[in-house]
Amino acid sequence: MKSWSDIIFETGEFGSPDFLDVSPALHASSNYFFRNVEEMRLCLQNEQAQPFYTRGINPTTRILCEKLAALEGKEKAIAFASGSAAIAAAVMHTVKNGDHAVCVEHPYSWTNVLLGNYLKKFGVACTFVDGREVKNFESAVQRNTKLIFLESPNSFYFDMQDLEEVSKFAKSRNIKTILDNSYASPLNQRGHDFGIDIIVHSATKYIAGHSDAVGGILCCSNEDYEEIFKNEFMTLGGIMSPWNAWLMLRSLRTLPVRMEKISQNTIEIVKYLENHSGVAKVLYPFAGEYDQKNLAQKYLKNAGGLFTLQLKTGDLKKVEEFCNSLTRFKLACSWGSYESLIFPACVSYQGKSKPQEHLNMIRFAIGLEDHTGLIDDLDSALKKIN
Ligand SMILES: *Cc1c(COP(=O)(O)O)cnc(C)c1O
């Protein structure tokens, strides 16, 4: 069996007959020419496997896909322009007019729009359930349910689903499962080992890891690949550019060390926050108080770098003062990169409609910095408001 280092440093590479690139080449070409009609005809018949036109297969992007499929234990992977494009393709592959989907509560915001709103116009309905209990999926399923969409752990509340039990149930009803695995990365959780059919990633996050490229990855079986390739991929056309695929190949080389460092940093920071009197709660799969520890232990090989801090104060002015006082955490959306970020829940509320329970929640994304500096920064910001 291939280890992660075989996959990350070798799989899919060394394809050039002329010389062997140590770093994979960037093939920018949009199309490929043929020496004669027969060669061109054969290639067109096999467009899902060979470079013919870059909206289909591109040699650089193909290396990235081979690596990610292997890391997730799937036969195939497809690269998209964004995580949302990968999610939309996976979802649209599994449902058609008249079908029903079940999705975990509070999924990524645009997954919520897709399943809760957009797909209505194509006659697809969706029920959102608290995914912490398998029985909630069982009771939400209808005669026409074709999809169960999972996000485990969730990237704001960090709720998890029992992947093995949910996929067992789904298989017994002929329902496909999709898992958004962006939080764990392919290194820390493998849905395939627990029966999940399709794995999707926002590659913008840990896979790219440098806040300089947007992309998405979908991993699946050969059978699903054949369908998704010619329908949602080639037809809707939301492909990853070869340049971004090349950047992601470069990033993938350091994914294991980045994940290791992020994990160490985050555990130290969470430990500090959990013991601070100004903190009400830290939502994190490896926090002392996490209420689904058995699932975290079963599914996650290592801790990720996202958590949500709930301050003790419910005073919006103080929450804002805390956020504004931090100097080593940037206020920004997204996550998964080398730099530490915060996303306060209160930025999503305008005017009067402020759900009270949220006002003091701040989502943190921990990067690769020295964790002692980050803790000092948190310490002085907490002092200011307490
Ligand atoms: C960011 C994100 C997405 C969407 O990915 P994009 O690359 O921004 O389109 C999907 N799921 C989760 C959990 C995310 O954090």
Could you explain the architecture of this structure?
With 386 residues, the protein is of the alpha/beta class. Helix content is 38%, strand content 15%. It has 14 helices and twelve strands. It has helices at 4-9, 37-45, 59-72, 83-94, 109-116, 134-140, 163-172, 185-188, 222-233, 242-252, 255-274, 293-299, 316-325, 371-385; strands spanning 76-80, 100-104, 125-129, 145-151, 176-180, 198-202, 216-220, 279-283, 306-311, 330-331, 341-344, 361-365. Strands 1-7-6-5-4-2-3 form a seven-stranded mixed β-sheet, with helices on both faces. It is globular. The N and C termini lie far apart (54 Å). The model has no long low-confidence stretch (mean pLDDT 96). Bound molecules: pyridoxal-5'-phosphate.
In a few lines, what is going on in this structure?
The chain is α/β, with parallel strands linked by helices. It contains 14 helices and 12 strands.
List keywords for this structure.
single chain; 386 residues; seven-stranded mixed beta sheet; five-stranded mixed beta sheet; 12 strands; 15% strand
How does the SSE layout of this entry go?
Elements: H1 4-9, H2 37-45, H3 59-72, E1 76-80, H4 83-94, E2 100-104, H5 109-116, E3 125-129, H6 134-140, E4 145-151, H7 163-172, E5 176-180, H8 185-188, E6 198-202, E7 216-220, H9 222-233, H10 242-252, H11 255-274, E8 279-283, H12 293-299, E9 306-311, H13 316-325, E10 330-331, E11 341-344, E12 361-365, H14 371-385
Parallel strand pairs: 2-3, 2-4, 4-5, 5-6, 10-11
Antiparallel strand pairs: 1-7, 6-7, 8-9, 9-12, 11-12
Helix pairs in contact: 3-10, 4-5, 4-9, 11-14, 13-14
The structure holds pyridoxal-5'-phosphate.
